[in-house]
Every structure is written in C-alpha cells, then in structure tokens.
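Reopening this ticket.

The earlier resolution said the output was attached, but the attachment link was broken on my side. Pasting everything inline this time so it's all in one place.
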Amino acid sequence: MQDNPRELWSKAGLLAVDKPAGLLTVPGRGPDKADCLIARVQEQHPTALIIHRLDQPTSGLVLLALNSELQREMSMRFARREVRKRYEAWVHGTPAGAQGEIDLPLITDWPNRPRQQVDMELGKPSLTRWQALETVEGRTRLALYPVTGRTHQLRVHLAAIGHPIVGDALYGTDSDREPRLLLHATDLAFEHPVEEEAVSLRSPAPF
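Inline output:
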C-alpha cells in the first residue's frame, strides 16, 4: 500500500500535496490502476481537480484546484509557463560544467509506449536547464528547471546526455538497482489567481 499524499498548503480554492513515489497521479487503464493521487485526495476534498501531473515514479509537489474555474485558469498558466518549477535528482556520473541546458526535441516512441525519445525532425521543442549541487561517489545531485513540460522530459533529456537519473527503470541502466527513481518536484512558484499574491511552495527531496 502506497503512502498517502501529504497535504502541504491550501488557500482560496487551490491545494498542494506531496505525492509519494510509485503512486499514479490519475487513474490508469484497468481496475488495478484505479488507486491514484486524485482518488485519495478526493476522499478529503471531493471537488479536487488535477491541474498538472507527475510521473508515477516521481515524488513531490502537485497542485490541485477545488473548482473547475481555477483548474482552467491554472492549467493555462502552466501552459503559458507562468508557473516556475524546480526538481532535484541524483544522476549517474558528473555532467560537464556547473550548469547548462538540454535543448532536444521529444516525441512518443509509439511502438514502445510510454517511452519517449529524442527526434530532431519530428520532436516537439523541449528545454531543460540544470545546475550541479554536489557530487558524491560517482553520482551528481542536480537542480532541474524544465522550461517546457513534455512527458518524461527530465528523464529522457538526462539519459540523452549520458547521465540518466538514478533508479530510472525505463531510461536507466540494467545495473541500476536503486529501489526508486531519485527525482522529486521540490518547488512551485506562481501568482495566486484569486488572492493575487505570490505563492512559493517547497517540498524538500526525501533522498
């Protein structure tokens, strides 16, 4: 049984929770994939609606709306890149330099869904900025700032430059035996659409 999402913040129709690793954000196909973050949150907040998603193995901040108007408004703000997002991850190896960006277009690998892949001709523009925080025993902890929000973007981008995220069963190495993906959504910052005040949310990485 997965841990329950932890409620971190609520104000004027918006709610932020901390999603545990391994829990779906929304239901998948089939009864075995019905258990998910939104179903558990709705037990306490029946009107809660998902604004954005995290991959099942990723943990961290998820923002929800308590009515459809706020869901629509915040979804548009995510699409317009008006919500600032930060993640932390441990990756294999040491990327060159103290910071950088990965600008590689991504597309679904249809025969191997849900995998995504780099495609320089057909892929959608995808940009990730990163900053090295520390290196320990052949692994580097990175702060990650996705400018775009493609499916599996951080995981594919880091694997594409030869530094897959530790514990990534989909894009990592067969020798990686870490029990979970070491990727966590640590920060969200935006202007509250009702209160019109700056909101800064943080969830420290649990690894």
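Reporter confirms the inline version is readable. Helices lie at 37-44, 68-79, 153-160. The chain has a mean pLDDT of 97.
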